[in-house]
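Researcher: Sequence recovery benchmark, item below. Answer with residues only.
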């Protein structure tokens, strides 16, 4: 406290001295500056009277060592100058003070010289014959003036600094000496400071209470630690600044802490957005509940504030619960639901559209049987889709019996194109199938979903008037299925992630055209199920090509 008091007195003295010095110099400089301008105006008026009565010859009688006198014709030509040859001087009509004098009768300006560190003031008066008489005077700037008296100023400042240092040190010690000598165990307040006597007495009386309370608190703390250390949940208690007051063993395990962190700020545990959000909320006096991921595990952070008697938050309690298994189950449920929604959408839409046409009377009587057959076909496909989706979810565990048959990939692709033809027609997209009739030993339903999803994506992300082409070819021991389009394409950074479930390149565009982001993940699953490989090439604005390669022996049909 002595240092703080000393610094306060010392720096206050220095600041006061420097402020006074600056103010005095500023006032004196301003005074002499105004005085110089007044003298210039008086001299210019005096000389103008002489020139008006005596003509230009009057100026030859003027002798001045400090002021410069110049006579300028109304066209800017210099007629006379007491310091330079008039003929060698340039035209002055563009000078500020000359233009003002020609316009209003009086002109003033000032110019600064960096080289000479001088400031020149100009005062011009318009004569009766239209010419202009200008008087100018040079003056040092405030900085050059200060530099000229720098030595005495530095001596004065040094003297004041030394004096302030000595006086500040002495005064601060004398003020604090009685306070520093107080014995809180046996207070005896000096008469020089009777104002703090009630405070010292109160401190003394509370010392005894604090000692007893500390014993009680330590005992309770030990009991609390035994209970909290046996909790499976993490328990973290922080004060109003976010510093850790207490924590249990689970916190150390969850956050992989090996050293004692009591007294440190809670952010040293983790600085993620979720953790900061919970900590900020509880310190603001609000309840918070946030899901948080750490070291490939999920935790639920539940925070509640602790309030003082006046209603302000004085800290908080944060409970950390490991919910990894719960989140894993929730993720599986969500993925399954999304798969069902995605795969059932198309047949349901077809059934709804056909039934809507039938109910509105738009179908001719002779076509009712055909449309009813379409409804039956889509309903049958709907049933099989439900079965296939359930089966695909089981494929993740590789627990589905591999029931296979020889599948004609050409006819399968043709069938998928037929199902998507209305969608392609609506978007003005041309469909083309070329290649050989090749057989593949696999599950027809899964292969159909693979081709269907590739075609569906190619149509959805195509341009009006674009093309979608399916090519089937055979190489040495392999069959290649290519689905290419002339659509919007994809940036290179997205190609490695498009097969992830729910991954979308452009969420707003995907929402507009529909889909859940599961189509390509189902395609990849179907390809892997048949021991195949899939690759993609795409150019933004030009289109995308998916290539599926099956390595098992193939044959022509």
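Model:
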């Amino acid at each position: 406290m002595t240092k703080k008091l000393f610094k306060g007195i010392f720096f206050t003295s220095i600041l006061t001295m420097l402020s006074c010095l600056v103010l005095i110099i500023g006032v004196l400089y301003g005074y002499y500056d105004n005085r110089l301008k007044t003298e210039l105006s008086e001299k210019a008026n005096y000389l103008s009277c002489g020139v008006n009565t005596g003509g230009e010859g009057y100026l030859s009688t003027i002798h001045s060592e400090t002021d410069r006198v110049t006579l300028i014709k109304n066209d800017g030509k210099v007629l006379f100058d007491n310091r330079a040859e008039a003929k060698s001087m340039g035209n002055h009509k563009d000078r500020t003070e000359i233009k003002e004098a020609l316009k209003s009768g009086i002109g003033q300006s000032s110019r600064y010289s960096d080289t000479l560190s001088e400031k020149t003031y100009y005062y011009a008066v318009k004569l009766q014959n239209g010419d202009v008489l200008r008087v100018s005077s040079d003056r040092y700037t405030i900085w050059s003036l200060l530099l000229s008296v720098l030595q005495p100023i530095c001596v004065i400042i040094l003297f004041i600094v030394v004096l302030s240092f000595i006086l500040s040190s002495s005064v601060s010690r004398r003020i604090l000496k009685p306070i520093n000598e107080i014995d809180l165990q046996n207070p005896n307040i000096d008469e020089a400071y009777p104002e703090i006597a009630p405070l010292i007495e109160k401190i003394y009386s509370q010392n005894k209470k604090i000692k007893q309370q500390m014993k009680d608190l330590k005992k309770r703390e030990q009991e609390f630690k035994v209970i909290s250390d046996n909790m499976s949940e993490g328990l973290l208690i922080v004060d109003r600044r976010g510093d850790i007051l207490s924590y249990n063993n689970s916190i150390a395990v969850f956050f992989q802490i090996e050293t004692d962190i009591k007294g440190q700020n809670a952010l040293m545990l983790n600085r993620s957005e979720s953790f900061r959000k919970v900590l900020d909320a509880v310190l603001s006096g609000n309840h918070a509940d946030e899901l948080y991921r750490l070291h490939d595990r999920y935790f639920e952070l539940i925070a509640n504030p602790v309030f003082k008697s006046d209603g302000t938050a004085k800290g908080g309690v944060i409970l950390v619960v490991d919910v990894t298994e719960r989140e894993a189950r929730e993720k599986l449920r969500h993925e399954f639901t999304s798969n069902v929604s995605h795969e059932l959408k198309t047949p349901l839409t077809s059934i709804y559209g056909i039934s809507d046409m039938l109910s509105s009377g738009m179908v001719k009587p002779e076509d009712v049987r055909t449309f009813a057959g379409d409804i039956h076909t889509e309903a049958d496909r709907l049933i099989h889709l439900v079965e296939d989706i359930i089966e695909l979810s089981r494929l993740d565990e590789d627990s589905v019996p591999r029931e296979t048959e020889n599948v004609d990939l050409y006819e399968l692709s043709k069938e998928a194109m037929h199902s998507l033809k209305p969608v392609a027609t609506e978007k003005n997209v041309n469909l083309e199938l070329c290649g050989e009739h090749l057989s593949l030993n696999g599950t027809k339903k899964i292969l159909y979903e693979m081709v269907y999803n590739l075609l569906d994506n190619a149509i959805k992300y195509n341009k009006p008037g674009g093309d979608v082409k399916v090519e089937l070819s055979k190489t040495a021991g392999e069959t290649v299925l290519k689905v290419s389009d002339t659509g919007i394409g994809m940036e290179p950074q997205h190609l490695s992630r498009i097969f992830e479930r729910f991954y979308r390149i452009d969420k707003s565009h995907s929402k507009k055209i529909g889909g859940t982001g599961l189509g390509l993940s189902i395609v990849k699953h179907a390809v892997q199920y048949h021991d195949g490989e899939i690759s993609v090439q795409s150019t933004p604005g030009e289109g995308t090509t998916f290539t599926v390669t099956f390595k098992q022996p193939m044959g022509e049909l």
